[in-house]
Amino acid sequence: MTKKLAALDRYRDHMVGGALADLERPGASVDQIGAYLDGLVQAVAAGGPARFGCLMANTMSDLAVSFPRDGEAVSAETGPATGGSDEEHTAEEVSGRVLAHLDRLVAAFQTALTTARERGEVRPGLDAAVHAHQLAVTVQGISTCARLGRTDVLQHSVEATMSALTADAPSQSPPQTI
User: Fold this and answer.
1) Domain map of the chain by residue range?
2) Under DSSP, is residue 53 helix (H, G, I), strand (E, B) or coil?
């Protein structure tokens, strides 16, 4: 296993696992989604390593410039490759780890959104699968934009995202009088 793969595995196990713990617990719902997103912004605001973004998001960005098109092989170091090197296998494995991370985010969000829909915490008719993907991409955007240091922009993104999920939710509506 290469150093890059080992680093991604450590990051997944220690950083991502801890950050997603509440969101992946049974019964997670809108509150846990909001807390997770707010936690990302707070971590950036606090400085430290979070101000450099997420290793998975940064790796996604790195892969994007060399992602295979039309069946091309990919080299981890130089982009599209021309033939069977060990680097191609490494790039495939790196891609697999990053995509597994994205799938994990989507699964956690989809489960929480399904619970939230059942509880009336999100707008009626919300498609949990579609919005889970949107949330996963939002997380990657927050992680990428963390490098800018503009926590106000990140917080506005979180507020807009949460508002889009919960607008007109039955549990968010004022009580009706008869």
Assistant:
1) 3-168
2) coil
Quickly state the pLDDT bin for 89 (edges 50, 70, 90). Answer: low
Q: Which H or E run includes 115?
A: helix 86-119
Q: Which helix (H) or strand (E) holds 73?
A: strand 73-75
The DSSP output letter for 148 is: G
At position 161, the amino acid (one-letter code) is T
- DSSP annotation of 11: I
Cα distance between residue 159 and residue 24, in whole Å: 21
CATH 3.40.50.300 fits 3-168, yes or no: no
What pLDDT does 1 receive? 65
Distance CA 104, CA 166 (A): 23
Of 55, 56, 54, nearest in space to 99 by CA: 56
| Rounded Cα–Cα distance for residues 133 and 104 (Å) | 11
The arithmetic mean of pLDDT across residues 67-87, rounded, is: 47
